[in-house]
Amino acid sequence: MSVLTKQAPGAAATIAAGPPGRRKQGSPRRRNQRSGYLFLLPWFLGMLFTIVPFFASLYLAFTDYNLFTEPNFVGLANFQAMAEDPRLGQSLKVTFIYTFVSVPISLAVALLIALVLNRGLQGLAIYRSVYYLPSLLGGSVAIVMLWRYIFGNEGIINGFLGLFGIAGPAWVTDPNFSLSTLIVLNVWTFGSPMVIFLAGLRQVPTMYYEAASIDGASRWRQFRSITIPLISPIIFFNLIMQLIGSFQTFTQGYVMSGGTGGPADSTLFYNLYLYQKGFTEFEMGYASAMAWLLLMIIAIFTAINFIASKFWVFYDN
Amino acid sequence: MALLASPPKSTPKPAKQAKQADPEEALSGTRGTRFSRHLILCLVGLVMMYPLLWLISSSFKPSNDIFRQLGLWPENWDFSNYAEGWTALNQPFHVYLINSMVVVVFSIIGNIFSCALAAYAFARMEFTGRKLFFALMLGTLMLPGHVLLVPQYIIFSQLGWLDTYLPLIVPNFMATNAFFIFLMVQFMKALPKELDDAAQIDGCGPFRTFLRVILPLCVPAMATTAIFTFISTWNEFFGPLLYIQNQDLYTVPLALRAFMDSEGQSMWGPMFAMSVVSIAPIIGFFIAGQKYLINGIATTGLK
């Protein structure tokens, strides 16, 4: 932003200098400067539309704003209330369980399938498409609704278990199981990290494996000492993006529970609770404080990841 | 990131794969192990596809049959679910399809236009602050959208934009989707620098160079952007939930949710039928644009 305002007087000066000026149209470099900012004009507007709300929500987090009356500064009251809010604790618990169970499983499955596919099988394109398609659908209302019926009391999962004489639980209405159906849904969408893994695996030079097998290294050893280090930046990238994404889960919880986060708050994702607070109870100050807590949590986990990555991510350049 | 940052071009195409696979053939084991690999991959694929296939088949079953049959082939074909579902809500279903389409089309135009402009500046122009802005742009990739939610909602409501599509469309014209900028920057950086110089010698200004020389070469990156925008906008639930109250303006995901509110056993069939209608365009676009999708995701790690 600051550069934009700094630039403006300069640009104005060249225009003001007019035709009789010594520099007729400005040097090519200067022209390039100006048109660079011109090309970025929509983006500057977008940044304005990001930065202003960013700080506005930080301010609102310390107020009692409710959309209808002027915001009053209340200091840390929202954060104190959050510390004592059992539903907030519950929503954090739901989000953490969901993230820390489903992200490692889906990354592991994605890597495993990518490794098998990378072995030069026929029909790779078909397999890749079949595995990738669900990741485009996993966030759609249609599929979450479908999930509700698949895991419903008389749904196909229990119908399938019934074939073996097992009486399945009431997946959707039992608080002990409802979240697990959504974890399964998230694992079902492992296709997008898988495609990224595949792209990475293709860039590992085959000569490394050839050299290793001449030296008598076992398959497992090759995987551990060649594949993992060389694709570690990609594992790292996938991990960060999946974590950030699943911390922000909303639609799945909303549709599965009809907007309540039930049964017994067992699918009350953090962002679902934020939505309830901000847009059904209109406690927008509280909702802003919640948003900032989430930002902090994501920032901390990302920072931990970046620090930890020094010890396990290998950059080959 | 470093490994991901290759232009889409360099991602091997299926035709090349076959060639590449040859030296690996020796590594990939005996006939038996290859067979068992296919078997496992097929089984996993079948398990993954089963819910979708079941959804499609259930949409052709009478509501009473849906939960009694695990099989995929309907015993009694029933097409009335589609007719019933189409008219079950306030408006016939094509109204919701058109509403979604309007949002999608404008979002695509906005994303391509604004992200291509920004990407051209980042990838091929020199100006003060470029690196700083680029870093800022990458930083917004990781920013959770809910942090901006409340103030943006206030702005939109002050503008009187509630119950219109403007809050869903306008941000796309301001290059707010850093993923697409990043994707196009990667693509444009791979184009030879001489193109710009030649265009300049021929008397093209930066804007003409962009429009006539660079943009036509970026069709694959724009196609990727268009398809991803289509899919994410078509699926988008949160934005419409927040900004659209008027039932006549509902987009497809909101309309589907309305089915759930009017839940009853007799509605399962029509609901499944409309679910199929709602995901059919995504599957269609996926089949048509696979190449761009896979290349795009391999370049940026976009979902």
TrEMBL record, chain A:
InterPro entries registered for this protein in UniProt: ABC_transporter_permease (IPR051393), MetI-like (IPR000515), MetI-like_sf (IPR035906)
Tagged with keyword Methyltransferase: no
Swiss-Prot/TrEMBL keywords: Cell membrane, Membrane, Transmembrane, Transmembrane helix, Transport
Topology versus the membrane: Multi-pass membrane protein
Record SUPFAM superfamilies: MetI-like
Region annotated Disordered, chain positions: 1-30
Source superkingdom: Bacteria
Location(s) in or outside the cell: Cell membrane
Membrane found in the keyword field: yes
GO cellular component: plasma membrane
Positions with biased composition (Basic residues): 21-30
GO biological-process terms attached to the record: transmembrane transport
Residues of the ABC transmembrane type-1 domain: 92-305
Residue stretches of biased makeup (Low complexity): 8-20
Residue stretches in coiled coil: none
Main location: membrane
Pfam families: BPD_transp_1
Transmembrane segments: 37-62, 96-117, 129-150, 179-201, 226-247, 292-315
Similarity comment: Belongs to the binding-protein-dependent transport system permease family.
Name of this protein: ABC transporter permease
Organism: Pseudarthrobacter enclensis
From TrEMBL, chain B:
Gene Ontology CC entries for this record: plasma membrane
SUPFAM superfamilies cross-referenced by the UniProt entry: MetI-like
Location (main, coarse): membrane
UniProt entry tagged with the keyword Transcription: no
GO BP, sorted A to Z: transmembrane transport
Biased composition annotated in UniProt, kind: Low complexity: 1-20
Region (Disordered): 1-29
InterPro entries assigned: MetI-like, MetI-like_sf
ABC transmembrane type-1 domain boundaries: 97-289
Taxonomic superkingdom: Bacteria
Keywords tagged on the record: Cell membrane, Membrane, Transmembrane, Transmembrane helix, Transport
Residue stretches spanning the membrane: 39-57, 96-120, 132-156, 168-188, 209-231, 267-288
Coiled coil residues, start to end: none
Subcellular location(s) per record: Cell membrane
Record's bilayer topology term: Multi-pass membrane protein
Family to which this protein belongs: Belongs to the binding-protein-dependent transport system permease family.
Name of this protein: Sugar ABC transporter permease
